[in-house]
Amino acid sequence: MADLNIDSIVETAGGPNPLAVAMLQLCQISYDSSGIKKAISNMPPYPGTTGKWYPLWGPAWNLIDSNLAFVAGYYKDGTSTPLFTCVVIRGTDVDIWDPLGILWQIWEDLDPENPVPLPWPNTDPNAWIAGGTADGLEVIQSLMSNGWLLKDWLTNFLAQPGNSGTLLMVTGHSLGGCLTTVVAPWLKTALSPATYMLPMTFAAPTAGNAAFASDFTKMFPTSYRYQNPLDIVPLAYDNLPAIDKLYQPCGLTIPWEIKDAVGWMQSEIKGLVYKQPGSLSPPLPSNCYKTTSWIDEGAYQHAATTYMALLGGTNIGRVSPMTSRRGARLATQRLPRSVLG
């Protein structure tokens, strides 16, 4: 591995984890599909170093499924080997500003009622992931930039002198975080066994069952999953019942539309037990947003800007807090009548 001190990944009371901040900044950049390359080049130097970020592959995206991925690398001044290389996966929850809309989009994208076996070599026949998650992986696998598929580009890049020692990060926020938990194992089995890979997710919903989570944790004993305790999204789908009373400490009662939708989701996945993978991430603090709206609370707590505030870092790119006074109207227009009665 390059000369990055792995101890810098562990947060201390002295300040924010610089690697987590940098990865979340890249996730924020992923939401601005028209300006990704420029935003990467304008990222600040990694703390304690002088150097520059470069776009290396992509961005590449599928317009039908709205999935997007890119690779960025950080080079210290005077070096030709990246300090680390980052695969960034964006989900599809762009311009969705209410929690019911987010939950419904996650439901549509992950297709949690229809699990499938793991689409990479593994030793546990009982492990499965959501069908839509497997579909999302197939989309990422098919993305192409300048004639290169992601796997082929990484294989060629890591085979170049010096690059084999780089730390390969895989990261994403929200649905991008969920996809990170399947993209990372796929790449781990597809690339050289010597590749040192570190997954890091933010606000990620679950991808699969306990056997999948165990398989992931064995493959990546060093991995980081950042979860805001007041974010509803990581509770999908391993702990949906917790959503009902999540904002009671904030003095807020769940709206009937969301309560009914969550109840319907629970009934649809009855018998399917989802599980979040293990993580070395220290717990994030929880802070209620100053609002009288459950909808705004849920939207705010899931926003990448809120996660950055909890990490103690600086926002970057075209981002804004995920708040809206529209309530759940957008989502209720999209939900089937069977959900809302």
Biggest sheet strand line-up: 1-2-3-8-9-10
Low-confidence runs: 7-14, 320-335
Strand fraction equals 15-25%
Radius of gyration: 19 Å
Average pLDDT value?
87
Number of helices: 12
Structural class: alpha/beta
Shape: globular
CATH-assigned fold name:
Rossmann fold
| Sheet of most strands | 6 strands, mixed
Total count of domains: 1
CATH superfamily: Alpha/Beta hydrolase fold, catalytic domain
Architecture (CATH level 2) name = 3-Layer(aba) Sandwich
Please give the number of β-strands. Answer: 10
Percent range of helical residues: 25-40%
CATH class: Alpha Beta
Distance between the termini: 56 Å
Helix/strand order, N-terminal first? HHEEEHEEHEEHEHEHEHHHHH
Describe this protein's structure:
Helix content is 35%, strand content 16%. It has 341 residues and is an alpha/beta fold. It has one domain (6-340): Rossmann fold.
What's this entry about, in short?
Helix content is 35%, strand content 16%. It is α/β, with parallel strands linked by helices and 341 residues long.
List keywords for this structure.
alpha/beta, about 350 residues, about 15% strand
Topology:
Elements: H1 18-30, H2 36-41, E1 51-61, E2 68-76, E3 84-90, H3 99-110, E4 115-117, E5 128-130, H4 131-142, E6 144-145, E7 148-149, H5 150-159, E8 167-173, H6 175-190, E9 196-202, H7 210-219, E10 224-226, H8 256-268, H9 294-302, H10 304-311, H11 329-334, H12 337-340
Helix pairs in contact: 1-10, 3-8, 4-6
